[in-house]
Amino acid sequence: MPETPARPSKPELLRPREMPRRGKGTSLTRRVALIHALAHIEFVAIDLAFDMIGRFGGQFPRAFTDDWMRVGAEEAMHFVLLDRRLREMDSFYGQLPAHEGLWGAAIDTAHDVSARLAIVPMVLEARGLDITLETVERFKQQGDYLTAKVLNRIYDDEINHVSYGTKWFEYVCSERNEPPHAQWKSLVKMHFRGGLKPPFNDSARHAAGLTREYYIGVE
Ligand SMILES: [Fe+2]
Ligand SMILES: [Fe+2]
C-alpha cells in the first residue's frame, strides 16, 4: 500500500495552527465550514477503510475484508451526502482548506493491525459518537434539519464501524493471547497523544462493544 493515498488538488491541506478560526462569520458560513470539515473527515475515512483491507486483509479471514469494504462504501456515501449539502449551500468540498493531520494516525499505526484497530475505529471513530448528537442539536437550533438528518444517518452507521473495530481487535487479541482491555490501554497510551476526553457517549459505545472496561482510567 502507498504510505499516503492520492489526493485531489483541492482542498488545500493546512496544519492545525494554520487553519482559519471557525468561530467567525454568519450562521451560514459557520455551518458550511463545519460541514466542510466533516466532509474532509469522511473523505479520509474512505482511504482508511481501504488501507485497512490492502495493508492487513491478508492476515484475516474473508469476513474482515467484507466488513471494511462495507465501511469504505458507507464512508463514501457519507462523503457524498455532506458534499451534496455543501452544494445546496453554494459551496463544495475543496472550496475551503482542510486539516492535513488526519492521515497521521494511519502512518503511526501502519506497522501493526492491532494498533490500527485500537486507534482508528476505537478511538477516533468512537470520538465521533461522543460529539455527533450535540452537533445534530446545533444544526437543528439553526433550523438546518436537512444537515441534522444527514448527521443522524452517519451516526447510525458509525456505531457499526466502531463495532467492527472492537470485533476485529478482540479477534487479534485472542489470536495473540493478549488481554484486550489492558492491550488497548497500552496501545492508546503509545499512539494517541493527549488522552481520551470525556464526556463519553456510553450507550453508543456500549452498543458497539466498546465497554467502559476499555476506556475507564485512560482519561
Ligand atoms: Fe463516516
Ligand atoms: Fe466510519
> Which term fits the overall shape?
globular
Q: Quickly name the level 1 CATH class.
A: Mainly Alpha
Radius of gyration: 17 Å
Structural class by SSE content? mainly alpha
Strand content: under 5%
Helix content: 55-70%
- Strand-and-helix sequence, N→C? EHHEHHHHHH
> What is the name of the CATH topology?
Ferritin
Ions and ligands = fe (ii) ion
Query: What is the count of structural domains?
Result: 1
Mean pLDDT: 95
Distance between the termini: 33 Å
Tally of strands: 2
| Tally of alpha and pi helices | 8
Compose a concise summary of this entry.
The chain is mainly α and 219 residues long.
Notes on the protein architecture:
The protein has helices at residues 27-56, 62-88, 104-108, 113-141, 145-176, 180-191, 202-207, 212-215, and strands at 13-14, 98-99. It contains 8 helices and 2 strands. Helix 2 runs antiparallel to helix 5. The chain has one domain: Up-down Bundle (Ferritin), CATH 1.20.1260.10. The chain has a two-stranded parallel ribbon. With 219 residues, it is an all-alpha fold. The chain is globular and about 55 Å long. The structure holds fe (ii) ion (2 copies). One fe (ii) ion binds at residues 45, 71, 75, 125, 158, 161.
Show the helix and strand layout:
Elements (H helix, E strand, L loop, with lengths): L12 E2 L12 H30 L5 H27 L9 E2 L4 H5 L4 H29 L3 H32 L3 H12 L10 H6 L4 H4 L4
Parallel strand pairs: 1-2
Helix pairs in contact: 1-2, 1-4, 2-5, 4-5, 4-6
Bound molecules: fe (ii) ion (FE2) (2 copies).
